[in-house]
Design goal:
The chain has 385 residues and is an alpha+beta fold. It has helices at residues 9-34, 102-105, 107-122, 148-155, 231-251, 278-285, and strands at 78-86, 126-130, 136-137, 143-144, 159-161, 173-176, 180-191, 202-211, 217-224, 259-264, 289-290, 296-297, 311-314, 317-320, 330-335, 339-345, 350-355, 358-363, 374-380. The strands form five sheets. It has a seven-stranded mixed beta sheet, covered by helices on one side. It has a six-stranded mixed beta sheet with strand order 7-8-9-10-15-11. The longest helix has 26 residues, at 9-34. The radius of gyration is 22 Å and the shape is globular.
């Protein structure tokens, strides 16, 4: 095998596969030790590097007594990679979006293809997109025929996309067609314009999937809560969680079906007072796990913010593509026995530049959105008999 530089994308992918394989194997062992016999089959296969092990002496199997049934191999968890990605809608000008370059902001020729590239690099099984509005504007503010989702669906032919026709329901869920079947889909209204602290009607879309490999059902919910850092807006979001969680429990037969909720919560993860931390208390109290608490973090930079805003000001000068640090707005939560294995705020290739004597990280190439995607590897428990 040819030598691969340690920090190259190939080496990083190999390392990632090894980490995920080791975690999954450990988890399967724990499940088999502590649980009774359950149904299903093994994990979704992913390519891994060949590893050499010491030769193990073969031991002759002891024949079973006549009439004894051959033991059925115990099933292992199924591994899934999940992404949440706010792609920033294209129905505004670059100036309105505070983007420094109108050509780079153009969805059909620049940001859209870059978003497709990010998804292909991360290779998720399931994606929740936010802000995929139908309308688009060109470089000079002119209306562009077509829909935003066309660029994503056309660039990702291996995925099936759920429909998002309703107003302020710009939340398609995409899944690998060969791994899942869509059983049903819909939406939950989590905020109303008339609510205190709400900026508009807001929804969570959902899709009930069947895992092809095991036949197990899986609920995926995708949301985009209202923006705003003031207490007033946080109150609106707190009401959204109160509506969302009972609705998800109802869809999953009182949380008996494994479930994933992801999206742009527009709520930071570093506040410890109500109502700013309402999501950080309501979800765990209802039995949900934050995937960012996974035992392995794969992101390239520590403390990176999931909202990047196309760059940041450094010493009073706006630096496009500069990577921010700070709190997180984007989440992946799990329920029903789904175990987070790895977590990352997904970053593109990085280069360091010297700015006023300091080395700062910058993202290479076109940035598709003012949010970075978040990605988690999850272990779906074996299906029950």
């Amino acid at each position: 095998m040819a030598d691969v530089p340690r920090n190259s994308p190939t080496a990083n992918r190999r390392s990632r596969h090894r980490v995920r394989r080791t975690l999954l194997a450990g988890l399967a062992g724990l499940l088999l030790t502590g649980c009774g016999s359950t149904g299903g089959v093994g994990p979704v296969p992913r390519p891994v590097d060949p590893v050499s092990f010491p030769a193990t002496p073969r031991v002759a199997a002891t024949p079973l007594p006549l009439g004894t049934a051959t033991p059925t191999p115990e099933p292992a968890p199924v591994e899934l990679r999940v992404m949440s990605f706010n792609v920033r809608h294209a129905d505004i000008s670059a100036r309105s979006a505070h983007h420094p370059d109108a050509r780079e902001f153009q969805w059909t020729t620049s940001r859209g293809p870059a978003a497709v590239k990010y998804v292909r690099q991360a290779d998720p099984d399931i994606i929740g997109f936010q802000e995929v509005k139908p309308q688009m504007k060109g470089i000079k503010g002119q209306r562009i025929p077509g829909k935003m989702i066309t660029v994503l669906a056309g660039g990702l032919p291996a995925y099936t996309f759920t429909a998002t026709p309703e107003r302020n329901n710009f939340l398609p869920i995409a899944f690998k067609t060969g791994k899942f079947t869509l059983l049903d889909s819909g939406r939950i209204q989590i905020q109303y314009t008339t609510d205190k602290g709400s900026d508009s009607n807001r929804f969570a879309t959902w899709a009930m999937l069947k895992v092809t490999q095991t036949g197990q059902r899986l609920l995926v919910a995708n949301l985009w809560a209202n923006d705003g850092s003031r207490r007033y807006w946080a109150i609106g979001r707190a009401l959204a969680w109160q509506r969302l969680l009972p609705a998800l429990a109802d869809l999953t037969d009182d949380n008996q079906i494994p479930a994933i909720t992801l999206g742009d919560f527009n709520a930071v993860d570093d506040r410890d007072e109500y109502p700013f931390n309402a999501h950080l208390t309501a979800f765990p109290e209802a039995g949900w796990l934050d995937a960012s608490q996974a035992p392995v973090t794969l992101q390239k930079l520590p403390d990176v913010a999931s909202y990047n805003g196309w760059g940041q000001k450094v010493d009073g000068v706006f630096r496009p593509n500069a990577i921010r640090t700070g709190p997180r707005l984007d989440y992946i939560w799990t329920h029903g026995g789904i175990t987070p294995l790895t977590w990352q705020i997904f970053l593109p290739e990085i280069e360091y530049r010297t700015v006023d004597g300091r080395k700062l990280p910058f993202a290479k190439g076109t940035i598709p959105s003012d949010h970075w995607p978040v990605v988690a590897d999850l272990a779906l428990p074996p299906a029950a008999h």
